[in-house]
Amino acid sequence: MASNKECLIIVLDVRNCAAEDVKLKSVKCASEIIKEKIVCDKKDLVSFVLVGCDSREKDLKAPNVVQYEKIQLCTWNLLLDFFKFVNKTACEEGQWLDGLKVALKLQEEALVFKPARRRILLLFDFNSFPQDYAKFNTITDTLFNADIELIVGTHNISYIDGAESGQPQAIFNFSRKCSPVELENQKYALSLVSRCNATLCNFKEALRTVFKVTNRRPWSWNAKLHIGSKISINLQGVIAMKNQTSVKLKKVWGEDNEVVSRETRHFIKGTEVTPKPEDLVTGYMLGGTPVPYDDALLEPKEPHPPGLHFFGFIKRDAVPDEYFCGDSLYLLVHQKGNTASANKLDALVRALIASDRAILCWKIYSSKFNTPRMVVLLPRLADDSNPATLNMLEVSYTAQHHFWDFPALRTAKSESSEEQLQAIDRLIDSTDLECSLRDTQQPRSWPQNDLLPFDGLPSIFEQNVMDILEWKVIKKEDDQSSKKEDDQSSKKKDDQSSKKKDDQAKKDADMFAQMVKDKKFSDVFWRVPEPLEEKSKQAAATVKKLFPMRYSREWLEKLKAKEQAENGEAVKQEPPEKEIPMPSDGVGLSNPVQDFTRILASVRSITNATQKDARFQALAAQVRVLVFTLLERKKLNSKELGELISLYRESCVDFNAFLEYEKFADELKVAVRAKNLKEFWQMVVMDKQLGPLVLGEPTLDDELALKAYYGIDNWREEMEVE
Fold first, then answer.
1. Which of 103, 255, 605, 699 is at a distance of 20 to 30 A from 535, taking alpha carbons?
2. Which CATH superfamily hosts domain 6-211?
3. Where is the composition biased (Basic and acidic residues) (predicted)?
4. Residue 480 — very low, low, confident or very high, per pLDDT cuts 50/70/90?
5. Domain ranges of the chain
């Protein structure tokens, strides 16, 4: 008899003093767990404990603690009974340590079912009501020694990266409203992590933690691959991918009111025959061949030897991708430090790829169950970062796979049209990458500090986003290669370069249209051995390199104001900086540098960030108009113009107006080139380096772009063409 996989005891806070939001989320979290286990047909045991029940309840197991009547498998009736159970009469009192104590007793009772894993989920509001911690050390030691996993879920949890380990660390959201009792309760909740390896998380992460079950199959193992009598390779298998949600298929023979009859017919080599009763032998079907009934088959068989067993070489396309099931994907490499096996494996992989072959084997994963699984080894050549490897995939041989289709990853309803893909493209372009700083000490609502803010998207669109990101990366690389080609042929005329840019834009549009046409967004089968997770991580890493994350002072100010509002703090004005009244006049033609400096100081003194940005944008627009007006004068004051442009350039850096200044620099070059102000260009713009702004250390592409901007020969040739 197979043992049950898990025994999960859920402890819920139903006290009257607990926040209603916490109690509602706790019930929803528990119901989601039950529904998930029912739908996936998991043989897991579940029970419940309520903390904060009235003392007049009959079935109290501890002060103000009530447990569910029994431990049982998840059913729809259990879900309905749970909703009735949580409506027990509540009171103000209740100790969460008493709830854990009752849950531990339930875990002891469940040992008769031989669960493979034991877990307790505590959903509690660690508020300002006092708790008794006299038995804290005893209960936590019991949890640790019994190897029972504890998951603690509450509402006010954020995450930072640990200073030493760099791993996500759960903390309580600090608030000045916290009383000393609440701080003490939070301190003991945090100490559960170190005392008994508990997982402290918010409700959303609590669900993920409960559903995240480690795969029973080993993460790594050693085996020998024997091919013939002379080839023996020592291999090491490492799991590379696993599919934790298995598909349950059920064959229904008939409805309740439908009469089902069985018709017996006999065939020999496709021809129907009518045999005599004495010619028939009772048997059962195994692979399409009638096998006579034999008592000897009921005797226990000799166990198969564990490990990997060679069966034969097959053509790579002999097994369709539909017959690969997604339970797991192992990566087979040579054993660490075994040079001979590494050389043999490298030669084997090269031979398999040259002949377009794969290897058919059978594998025993567990010596206890001793069930052989057919696997296929697919070769993968060595590269700069990986040695020669074999991808080991299971073959689905069960008969039901021949009669039933795999569920589609994307159904017809989730197919993406070109308009939807264009919308995702615009979404990526409009995403504020400045809001994702690598500030590991800034509290966040999720454990992993991912720079790309795509985690909140619906799962249907995840792969579509990665498809378009892949296209954008390809386009970016093409742009960089075209820039290098333009630099090598810098002596060509400008009309040719503009034509090349138009061709490149058309090429990009055609590439996007072709991508939309080529992508089949309703694939029925998942693709192995290239897991989507690996491709997504690679694409995300490439995007992080290509799209620089800028340090945004404005975003930090908004975040700080939001945190202060949540913690109930009044936003304090900075006392030392008093606002300078705005001058009524603007930047004049007589003394533009002095006027700009005076008005800019007034703008900087404004404490409201939104108002400050609006005033600066208005001032910057005045300065840009003034610069082009001064350029129209017959007698040009180059020194004054240079100072004004230099001050405006520095202010754009302070106010993050990079795009505005880049546009202004392009317009300035056009105006100077139109009036043929060669001396002004050399003495002011080039000497003072008033070209486009570059963030951080300039790259090779930045230097080439600046060289093309300052190059006076280029725009002289363009004037001659005009």
1. 699
2. von Willebrand factor, type A domain (3.40.50.410)
3. 564-580
4. low
5. 6-211, 220-246+301-403, 412-546, 580-721
Torsion of CA 549, 554, 557, 558, to 10 degrees: -90
**Count, residues in the chain:** 722
CA distance 386 to 29: 42
Whether the Cβ atoms of residue 469 and residue 543 lie closer than 8 Å to each other:
yes
Coil, helix or strand for 292? strand
Give the position of tokens 């859920």: 10
pLDDT at res. 479: 56
Q: How confident is the model at residue 122 (pLDDT cuts 50, 70, 90)?
A: very high
Query: Which residue in 14, 75, 176, 153 sits closest to 569, CA to CA?
Result: 176
Q: What percent of the residues of the chain are helix, what percent strand, and what percent coil, each to the nearest 5?
A: 45, 20, 35
Question: Which residue(s) pair with 12 in the sheet?
Answer: 50, 123
511 Cβ contact partners less than 8 Å away, ≥ 6 residues apart: 471, 474, 475
Residue 390: C-alpha distances to residues 99, 314, 353, 600 (Å)? 50, 15, 11, 65
Copy the structure tokens of residue 373: 């699984």
Q: Does the domain spanning 220-246+301-403 belong to CATH 2.40.290.10?
A: yes
Burial class (CB in 10 A: 0-12, 13-18, 19+), 144: middle
Pair of tokens at residue 498: 């503009």
Taking the alpha carbons of 523, 529, 533, 536 in that order, is the dihedral positive or negative? Answer: negative
Contacts of 46 by beta carbon, 8 Å cutoff, 6+ apart: 7, 8, 9, 10, 33, 34, 37, 71, 72, 73, 74, 78
pLDDT at 494: 57
Burial of residue 474 (CB within 10 Å: 0-12, 13-18, 19+) is middle
Q: Residue 48 — pLDDT band, cuts 50, 70, 90? A: very high
d(CA 581, CA 601): 10
User: What does the pLDDT read at residue 541?
Assistant: 57
pLDDT of residue 257: 61
Report whether 327 contacts 243 (CB < 8 A): yes
Angle at the Cα of 6 (from 393 to 528), degrees rounded to 5? Answer: 15
Amino acid, single-letter form, for residue 667: E
| Helix/strand/coil for 578 | coil
327-to-38, 522, 639 alpha-carbon distances in Å:
20, 21, 73
Within 13 Å, how many C-alpha atoms sit on residue 25's CB side? 19
Name the β-bridge partners of 220. Answer: 238
φ/ψ (deg, to 5) at 201:
-155, 170
| Closest to 688 measured CA to CA, from 720, 719, 655, 642 | 642
Residue 526 pLDDT exceeds 60: no
pTM for the full predicted model: 0.41
